[in-house]
Amino acid sequence: MSDIAHSTIAFEGHFARDLPEMAVPWRAEEAPEPQLLALNEPLAVELGFEPDFLRSPEGVRLLIGNALPEEATPVAQAYSGHQFGWYSPRLGDGRALLLGEIAGPDGKLRDLHLKGSGRTPFARNGDGQAVVGPMLREYIVSEAMHALNIPTTRSLAVVATGRAVQRETLLPGAVLTRVASSHLRVGSFQYARATNDLELLRRLADHAIERHHPSAVGEANRYLGLLEAVITVQATLVAQWMLVGFVHGVMNTDNMTVSGETIDYGPCAFMEGFDPGAVYSSIDESGRYAYRNQPLIAEWNLARFAESIAPLIHDDEEQAVALAVEALNGFRQQYSAAWFSGMKAKLGLPESIDDGVASPLVDELLELVQEARADYTSFFRSLGKAARGQAEPARGTVLDLAAFDAWLERWRALTPDANAMDRVNPIYIPRNHLVEEALAAATEGDMDPAVRLLAAVGDPFKERPGLESYADPAPESFGPYRTFCGT
Length: 487
What we know:
Elements: H1 3-8, H2 14-18, E1 23-25, E2 35-39, H3 41-47, H4 51-55, H5 57-63, E3 75-77, E4 81-83, E5 86-88, E6 96-103, E7 109-115, H6 132-147, E8 154-166, E9 170-180, H7 186-194, H8 198-212, H9 222-244, E10 246-247, E11 269-270, H10 294-313, H11 317-328, H12 330-346, H13 355-372, H14 376-387, H15 392-395, H16 401-412, H17 418-422, H18 432-443, H19 448-457
């Protein structure tokens, strides 16, 4: 390894060392002709990497796990999961690797993780590979989420492998280098619980507490404190998704982190025309993970987490269940409070406003927006103009003009803060048609559309000349949108 890599970055192996029963030592497959497609330079600097090094041949090989420091202990992580409601006892990193944890200049520990790095013992029938399009999708959408101030895993790089991968056609292979507070999931706890090894379950919970929720140590019951902390961060996270119209698409328990970060950008999409029943995933035939169902699914997943750690909460099963149920009962209240607070902010109303005034305003507005299938993002952004006296952009998107005018009069009487609205209502999101255009071009070797899209969504609240097309909804010719998991 180069002096730069050795002197600035140490790859630690906390997960591999603390939880060997859930970590299979493994190495990434060698890429025949690795080529850097995208590098997140600000994130690289934040982590303590030298961007020029990461752009070098040796740095690119580091990014895909082909050239690691001697102390690195890459592992495939074991976890279980409920996938579309069906329990799978042994999932794990089938095409992924945890390279290790790194501490950046801020001292914060983060996972460095790969997707598409080759088959592991968890691969089942998969080939362990990934292709350029889905890996670049995760890069674009996760960085957009970060810019929207929503907790998320981040993308450090996308590297083309030089290997063709068979999907419906032959496609160029790629590896995503992902950064996260950790990759501990509800499914991790389901796996540990299924082993009937209480000591392993306790070590996993202690690892999660130390890594993410240290305040639980001071609680009378630290494992109940862990459950309550995870409930809180997930209630807040899902509320933030709902407020920006984000549809995750695959809310399996192995895709819910205990840190409260968004993870796995497979069949995800941002809703355009407001439709509570919006589903974009090609495999979600029943609509289990529809937009409106996301809070309910989060609550269901958290119940599976509670079941998994129940033996730690109390030795007596009945008492453990009672304590867990009491904690879970707090989810809806916390979610509703976070969502309602966010909606008041989107309408430029103060947090202190009387709920009896704000709640009917919110409900009536959403009914009008839903009736018209108005573009969710554009509509709320245009309300900022309405607060400044320019009602036509918003008014032109609704059907019931009389009802909207009456609503507008009541809302304006509350003197909404237009500048505050512009700070929370984005103008640029990863529009589905623009994402698809960028991925198609990148698959053919042209990264320019992706670079331009990233520049737009990386600063989502500031309107900039020349970017009008990035704020427009998809043309009618784009048709119904379906996304795929990319495996």
